[in-house]
Amino acid sequence: MRYLIADFVTEFNAKYDNTKRLAEPFIYCGERETDFCLEVSENYLQQLMSKAAVGTTIGQIENLAFSGVFNRKIIKYNTMLVHSSALIYNNGAYLFSADSGVGKSTHTKLWLKAFGDKVHIMNDDKPVVRLYDDHAQAYGTPFDGGSGIALNESYPLKAIIFVERGEENSVRIPDNKEIIQKLYFQTARMVNRETAEKMLVNLERLLHLTKFYVLTCNMDISAAYTAYNSIIEK
Q: Where are the alpha helices (DSSP H) in the chain?
């Protein structure tokens, strides 16, 4: 089966319903040639399954495996995973990124509560960013961290916001060194040396194509208003 993901014609054959369902909106029936194929073996899925948390399904493991292959392949095409919850406001993408468990999804849900139908979430865990000459574009993917939010949409990237927990809400602008360090841990890893070098080039290019912030926040709805006032209204 062929899919159009981040404007790449991507071919893979999912075995389990979880990935089939998420990938259905991305089905491609056009005449473009396939850019690349994704393959994962049943043996590899079982290896991942043996290390997964209790309650994880084989369908979720398959989605994770295809995601990993896809996110490594796109690096050489000036594209990268940004592990984040992709919030869409006024036709622009704001990626709230953090380590798992910090609360990036909890934070973007506060935006839904605060701003209603003015905002929505494009992908709650694995959007990708493609770098063009004059801008960065955020894309939804059929890869998911468990929320089921994986829309086939694309918007200009307006900002990447690194989320940290704190008792008080505040926003600051990080320096380039901190940005690179944080981005490195929120993109595809386990790559060979050549791909890693290209990944670093992509990260450095991204510095010039979008804005970055660090949001320290609690879990109160006031955190959404603090972020809005400091990032969007600035």
A: 17-23, 42-51, 58-73, 104-115, 176-184, 193-207, 222-227
Hunting for tokens 């006024």 — which residue is that? Answer: 90
Q: Rounded to the nearest 5°, which phi and psi values hold at 158?
A: -100, -35
Model pTM score: 0.95
Question: What are 101-137's pLDDT values in tens digits?
Answer: 888 999 999 999 999 999 999 999 999 999 999 999 9
Q: Answer positive or negative: Cα dihedral of 68, 69, 72, 73.
A: negative
The whole-angstrom separation of Cα 56 and Cα 210 is 35
Helix axes 58-73, 42-51, angle to 10 degrees: 110
pLDDT digits (tens, 9 = 90+) for 33-69: 999 999 999 999 999 999 888 889 999 999 999 999 9
Residue 87: left (phi > 0), alpha (psi -120 to 50), or beta?
A: beta
Residue 145 DSSP one-character state: S
Round the CA-based radius of gyration of the chain to a whole number and report it: 17
218 touches 159 (CB < 8 A): no
